[in-house]
């Protein structure tokens, strides 16, 4: 199919654009950075006046708001591209080509960004934006943005001062991992030259890059393709384009990343630019395809424009096949690990964590009917069980997994049960070998926990599960500064008992031993955790393994005794009192606080250096993922009728949906401040936050919702 200059690439692919927000700006002169001599466009008159177009949801957006809005494109292997709507890189992770060499780990940043300018007869105008340590910015692309859209992928429209309009699109093709940039000029005069300088590093995704003599600037040329291998052991960078390449190596120094500084981290980086890709937009469209370790073929590669259009058609069809934007966003977290699959806990810095994977799976896979992906993930993790424990996390260096979570294994048992139930209800056959592997993993977990395993994890004489060792954080409240665990919770934490009793009860249909132990644990839970005077539950009993001690700190963990799991452990009267207390003291529009205001140690704002942030992480910080268990409990104690579900949508789901158009666009953030206005913090793209939103939307609050049953796994 020929590429017409009259139609944007996205429209050529049959996509209807759904602009989220747009704004119109007239330029104030951008500062010039003498360190790298960037080219700056001519300022328009008006002296910095900005006009704002209202967003599609009626909310106006300021420049600072726009910088905080981030987009994400993923390749299905752990690699990704991400940046801001205003073009400025504010994180070390903002990049156009970030590749996982040992999926999903071994991640390298290869192409950090671009420096792009357009020259017409009226002058030279920037359509990219950088920020430098000195405070200078340039070359002025952010103030020339007329509109920004993310559906089906990021697209910017720039208005130049002479009336020329430039469309820029970017996407990552999930099946090939290629990152595609596309430009088109509209309303242009007789000469429109686009110069694009790639900014390269070839560094670890968590590091920063600095000028050094070892960087290899010289490319290998082959037709439209230029290839670089910046350093030994770093993936090869391939760039295919329909441009003229002008070799002109230069170091760009002292890029400044504001988000890194706000997190108390190093925030300055140098990047290498080997040369300029020069396109003549007055003659046709421009395409640039970025790849890591692209396979070499003796056959000639299709021309860049033809290939870009083909990749766009394929990617557009793939995205259009997904029913909603949230479901499309959910796919970003499902990635390859070895021969199987796993779930990335969050972008841009997390890998796959045990507990996050199995909490997320219920929304990302089961609610969206991705049954085969759920099976692949669960079967892949079955082989990781060690002494009854599932790994807490893997490292980017592919070192030995860390087995330091008491809840990950129990969430795995719950996920297996819900997967088998979902497969049965949808009429999907579970291969006998997979079913056997999963149920065997469940038995190994329960045997290990009942008999005793690492870190003092063991079934106590009262049937409850004890856990905890000095200096080790075992629950999801896992912040640690040096050797100090911020919320140690050693003993018998409340949500661990809810998980333990649910796991035992679900497995009890196959083994009478687990059924008996579940009954004992349930009776002990009812008598030991209830606080009649407050209508709530203790957070921990037998604190630090001292019999009879209790921790009454008001935290959200108690909600799992009522919602978020197949079985509720409380009577209807007690369950209602717990839900009401949690709503009153912990609920915010972004989720539940990790500690109630007024409790000793409460921190209302998550900010500062790493130590300050870790100290606040579970001391009042809001966690959106907890909303899933809370809303499910809220609906349960009110009978679960259609009117109740609709009220829950209006009261609890609607505010969280508004968040989808801020921070990580289309996604839900990891955390938010405990104090109003509850600004989003942490990872802007978090799997379990989005997963629980999907679980609520598609299962718990759906028109056909039914409360989870307590039946054991079907063994047909």
Structure description:
With 716 residues, the protein is of the alpha+beta class. The strands form twelve sheets. It has a nine-stranded antiparallel sheet with strand order 1-11-12-13-14-21-18-17-16, covered by helices on one side. Strands 4, 5, 6, 7, 8, 15, 19 and 20 form an eight-stranded antiparallel sheet that branches. It has a three-stranded antiparallel sheet with strand order 29-32-33. The radius of gyration is 27 Å and the shape is elongated. The protein starts with 8 loop residues before the first helix and ends in a 16-residue tail after the last helix.
Describe the protein's topology.
Blueprint: H1 9-12, E1 21-22, E2 24-25, E3 50-51, H2 63-68, E4 70-74, E5 80-84, E6 95-102, E7 105-120, E8 123-126, E9 130-131, E10 137-138, E11 145-149, E12 155-159, E13 165-172, E14 179-186, E15 193-204, E16 220-222, E17 225-228, E18 237-241, E19 244-256, H3 258-262, E20 268-280, E21 286-292, H4 304-320, H5 325-331, E22 334-337, E23 340-343, E24 346-347, H6 354-366, H7 371-382, H8 408-425, H9 432-451, E25 458-459, E26 465-466, E27 480-481, E28 484-485, E29 492-493, H10 494-507, H11 512-528, E30 530-531, E31 536-537, E32 540-541, E33 550-551, H12 572-586, E34 587-588, E35 591-593, H13 610-616, E36 622-623, H14 626-636, H15 642-658, E37 671-672, E38 680-681, E39 685-686, H16 687-700
Antiparallel strand pairs: 1-11, 2-3, 4-5, 5-6, 6-7, 7-8, 7-15, 9-10, 11-12, 12-13, 13-14, 14-21, 15-20, 16-17, 17-18, 18-21, 19-20, 22-23, 24-39, 25-26, 27-28, 29-32, 30-31, 32-33, 34-35, 35-36, 37-38
Helix pairs in contact: 5-16, 6-7, 6-8, 6-16, 7-8, 7-9, 8-9, 8-10, 10-11, 14-15, 14-16, 15-16
């Amino acid at each position: 199919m020929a590429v017409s200059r009259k139609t944007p690439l996205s429209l050529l692919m049959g996509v209807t654009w759904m602009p989220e927000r747009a704004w119109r700006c007239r330029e104030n002169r951008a500062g010039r950075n003498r360190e790298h001599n960037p080219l700056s466009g001519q300022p328009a008159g008006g002296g910095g006046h900005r006009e704002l177009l209202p967003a599609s949801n009626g909310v106006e957006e300021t420049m600072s708001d726009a910088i905080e809005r981030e987009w994400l494109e993923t390749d299905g292997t752990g690699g990704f591209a991400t940046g801001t709507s205003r073009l400025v890189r504010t994180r070390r992770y903002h990049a156009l080509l970030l590749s996982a060499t040992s999926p999903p780990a071994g991640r390298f940043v290869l192409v950090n960004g671009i420096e792009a300018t357009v020259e017409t007869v009226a002058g030279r105008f920037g359509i990219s934006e950088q920020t430098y340590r000195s405070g200078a910015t340039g070359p002025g692309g952010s103030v020339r943005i007329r509109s920004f859209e993310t559906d089906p992928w990021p697209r910017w429209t720039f208005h130049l001062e002479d009336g020329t309009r430039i469309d820029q699109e970017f996407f990552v093709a999930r099946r090939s991992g290629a990152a595609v940039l596309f430009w088109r000029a509209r309303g242009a005069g007789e000469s429109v030259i686009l110069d694009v300088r790639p900014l390269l590093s070839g560094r670890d995704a968590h590091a920063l890059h600095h000028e050094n003599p070892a960087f290899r600037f010289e490319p290998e040329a082959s037709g439209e393709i230029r290839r670089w291998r910046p350093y030994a052991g770093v993936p090869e960078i391939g760039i295919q384009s329909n441009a003229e390449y002008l070799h002109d190596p230069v170091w760009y120094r002292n890029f400044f990343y504001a988000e890194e500084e706000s997190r108390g981290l190093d925030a300055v980086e140098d990047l290498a630019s080997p040369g300029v890709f020069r396109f003549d937009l007055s003659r046709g469209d421009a395409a640039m395809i970025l790849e890591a370790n692209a396979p070499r073929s003796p056959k000639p590669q299709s021309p860049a424009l033809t290939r870009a259009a083909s990749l766009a058609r394929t990617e557009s069809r793939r995205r259009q096949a997904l029913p909603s934007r949230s479901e499309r966003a959910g796919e970003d977290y499902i990635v390859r690990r070895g021969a199987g699959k796993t779930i990335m806990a969050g972008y841009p810095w997390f890998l796959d964590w045990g507990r996050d994977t199995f909490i997320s799976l219920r929304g990302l896979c089961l609610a969206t009917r991705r049954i085969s992906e759920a099976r692949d993930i669960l079967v892949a993790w079955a082989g990781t069980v060690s002494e009854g424990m599932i790994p807490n996390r893997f490292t980017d260096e592919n070192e030995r997994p860390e087995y330091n979570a008491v809840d990950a294994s129990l969430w795995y048992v719950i996920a297996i049960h819900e997967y088998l139930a979902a497969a049965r209800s949808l009429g999907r056959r579970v291969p006998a070998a997979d079913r056997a592997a999963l149920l065997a993993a469940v038995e190994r977990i329960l045997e290990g926990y009942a008999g005793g395993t690492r870190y003092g994890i063991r079934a106590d004489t009262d049937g409850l599960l004890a856990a905890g060792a000095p200096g080790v954080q075992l629950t999801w409240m896992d912040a640690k500064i040096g050797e100090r665990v911020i919320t140690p919770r050693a003993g018998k934490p409340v949500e661990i008992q809810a998980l333990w009793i649910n796991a035992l009860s679900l497995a009890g249909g196959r083994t009478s031993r687990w059924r008996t132990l579940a009954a004992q644990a349930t009776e002990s839970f009812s008598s030991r955790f209830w606080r009649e005077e407050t209508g709530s539950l203790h957070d921990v009993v037998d604190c630090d393994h001292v019999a009879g001690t209790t921790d009454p700190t008001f935290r959200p963990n108690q909600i799992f005794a009522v919602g978020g799991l197949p079985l509720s452990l409380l009577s209807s009267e007690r369950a209602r009192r717990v839900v009401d207390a949690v709503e009153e003291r912990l609920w915010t529009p972004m989720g539940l606080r990790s500690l109630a205001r007024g409790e000793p140690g409460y921190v209302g704002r998550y900010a500062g250096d790493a130590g300050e942030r870790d100290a606040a992480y579970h001391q009042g910080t809001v966690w959106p993922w907890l909303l899933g268990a809370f809303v499910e409990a809220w609906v349960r104690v009110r009978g679960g009728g259609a009117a109740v579900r609709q009220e829950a949508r209006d009261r609890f789901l609607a505010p969280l949906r508004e968040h989808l158009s801020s921070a990580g666009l289309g996604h839900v953030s990891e955390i938010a401040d405990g104090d109003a206005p509850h600004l989003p913090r942490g990872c802007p793209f978090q799997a379990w936050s989005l997963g629980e939103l999907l679980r609520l939307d598609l299962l718990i609050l759906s028109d056909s919702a039914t409360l989870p049953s307590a039946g054991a796994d079907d063994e047909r």
